[in-house]
Specification:
Two copies of one chain form a homodimer. By secondary structure, chain A is an alpha/beta fold. Chain A folds into two domains: 119 residues, Aspartate Aminotransferase, domain 1 (Alpha-Beta Complex); 245 residues, Aspartate Aminotransferase, domain 2 (3-Layer(aba) Sandwich). Chain A has twelve helices and 14 strands. In chain A, the strands form four sheets. Chain A has a seven-stranded mixed beta sheet, with helices on both faces. At the A-B interface, α1, α3, α4 and α9 of A face α1, α3, α4 and α9 of B.
Chain lengths: 387, 387
């Protein structure tokens, strides 16, 4: 199988030091040595999430299983859920929420625009039966970053538990779990946490536990009370209900330590700088960004529409076939309309980004667009008027 | 972290060729190349399961998530579920079944003895509302092999869908999915499939689909209809609902091909021979096997009680500390009473077993039991009377 450089919005090309853990001999997923490794990994994860209050678990499986666990655990019939959506992964929240509750309210925003904080506040003010707000932090399907901190403040004011998909942002974009009043946070290892897929970190605040206790949701693996039970009752031997991927846990511990060694603010700044580089470059080359407002754009994924002379699908195909570079396409209703470039962890570097941009320049030239070498890298034009 | 040889009942020590796939660069989990790899892996898995009729999926996560998916998908309130249990993992089926259905009947057998086929038949005959029978094939907590083929025949006669945990048997002990009338089979990669944990194969027969369609169970990831939808609608691009662990899928394909190259009958015979070696050895050394009847014993896990002079916990500790060999202990009500040796795939070999047996001989001698070197390996005493 031919190898491609992964510039898709996750999974990403990983550092060989991380991959090396994956092929280490297996170790037992119980006993004192294992519990030390597991606990240390959880501790590092709490630091990356900036939480002292939340319980954190490592759930084997994809991010979606942790999303389902969050919903299943707190969807009771005594209260309503408010789901915000402005993309494919927001819609997945809607799908899952409706499968577990008959009392789901959906607040939709246009794909490519951020969720509307005022609308959330108005909805919570009007309907005091809403006990949880469910949203995506970084909407990977469009490249939109939703205003998590602001929505967290609103939820706190109205006593709603905030449930957040942070799959494409944790480790790349600022998140302050406790200070931003997050109730349940869900992530996955294969994006900015710089590991292969296979574990879904899930964090649960004390306020979220209260709602979970009242809700008494269904299921075993997908019920967070099962995870709490094993952490409490089997804590010094087997603090989780199932067999764990031990190599991936070792890889994750290594990555988390790397992330903390880089420094969280430095890391967020790096992702900001690289996102600016990509957005500016695509504008320089005449592409229209799918997220028009820079302040609403994710720093880990950039989406743009096809060029007048180069449809998105043709660009994706040429990058793959001529340059062995994989970038993402549009999902569902954006299929064929946009392309998406991931810049996460090791791919949020000039090493990964600049060759991709130069390849895009080549491809544009090959279809007759006048592009000078390095045009994508030029500084942005001075902003006219107040910024 | 000190490295131990894993002679526990899974995960097991793996071949370096398998581990090498785990540290290969990631590939995208969608697109033509990926679908070819995924489809080929499923095809090999069907051959190991001996099925032409079942749909097979690879569910990221532990075996338990596939167990939960099986139950969630077919537990409706219009029918009853019959759960057979004779151990810790049978009890897990009971726990999960009761979380999804209020109409669960439990048929218990003693831990260490096989499920009673006649009792299953009598129960199905008496209660025609039972539409599914749920059981464990190899009960890893005790080393009992339940009579799957016979129960399959009974289920077929009474029109019940048979749901089976084959986590510790698939790839080591004979299973004929179609011929034995299996409805849903659940497994995991970290036992006889000779891979790290992280994927749960699940097979679904046409008859099981009928019950699933009628049941309309809850959930998204845990509902098999979601998996069917993606396989059908996204089959040539992304035939599964979530991100897949691509390295593990490559490792699994490699292992499955190895398993088929060895030959299924040859492989079952190897596990039979190695189980006999272990059982005979433990008897030679004066241990009492936890499964008294050879015909009810698993060929992939052997459990025995502590020796008069050497409690199970002391044996486990000495093997770990003095010989760097990890074997399993008893779970829950068997805690401290038994020890368990896994002999699965690469550990179902004399290379893995004989040094373990010789270490046990040493440890017995060290506590004053008279054991001659190699006593464990002696041939069994001739059987008196008709075998």
């Amino acid at each position: 199988m031919r190898r491609y450089r992964l510039r898709i919005p996750g999974p990403i090309d990983l550092e060989p030091e991380v991959l090396a853990y994956m092929s280490a001999p297996l170790i037992a997923h119980y006993g004192q040595e294992w519990v030390e490794l597991y606990t240390e990994t959880i501790t590092l994860l709490k630091r990356v999430w900036q939480t002292r209050e939340a319980d954190v678990f490592l759930m084997p499986g994809p991010g979606s299983i942790a999303m389902e666990a969050a919903i299943a655990s707190l969807a009771g019939d005594t209260h309503k859920l408010l789901v915000l959506t402005n993309g494919f992964f927001g819609d997945r929240w809607v799908t899952i929420a409706r499968l577990y509750s008959s009392r789901v309210i959906v607040l939709e925003s246009a794909w490519g625009r951020a969720c509307d904080v005022d609308a959330v506040e108005q909805t919570l003010k009007r309907d005091r039966e809403i006990k949880a707000v469910i949203m995506v932090h970084g909407e990977t399907s469009t490249g939109v970053l939703n205003p998590l901190k602001e929505i967290g403040e609103v939820c706190d004011r109205y006593g709603a538990v905030l449930v957040v998909d942070m799959i494409s942002t944790l480790g790349g974009i600022e998140i302050a779990f406790d200070d931003w009043h997050i109730g349940i946070g869900v992530s996955a290892t294969q994006k900015c946490l710089e590991c292969p897929p296979g574990l879904a970190p899930i964090g649960v605040s004390p306020r979220a536990w209260e709602l979970i206790e009242r809700s008494k949701g269904p299921g075993w693996y997908i019920n967070l009370r099962t995870w709490q039970h094993f952490a409490r009752e089997w804590g010094d031997w087997h603090p989780h209900p199932v067999t764990m991927p031990t190599g991936l846990t070792q890889a994750l511990r290594f990555s988390l330590q790397n992330i903390l060694d880089e420094g969280l603010p430095q890391r967020w700044a790096r992702h900001t700088a690289m996102a600016r580089l990509v957005r500016n470059a695509l504008k320089n080359l005449g592409f229209e960004l799918f997220v028009p407002n820079d302040r609403e754009a994710m720093n880990t994924v950039t989406a743009a529409k096809g060029h007048a002379r180069l449809p998105a699908a043709a660009l994706i195909r040429a990058l793959k076939e001529k340059y062995q570079i994989l970038i993402g396409g549009g999902i569902e209703k954006l299929s064929g309309q946009i392309f998406r470039i991931g810049h996460m962890g090791p791919t949020a570097t000039r090493d990964a980004i600049v060759p991709t941009l130069l390849a895009i320049e080549d491809i544009l030239r090959s279809v007759g667009v006048a592009v000078e070498p390095g045009q994508s890298l030029r500084a942005p034009a001075p902003v006219m008027g107040p910024e």
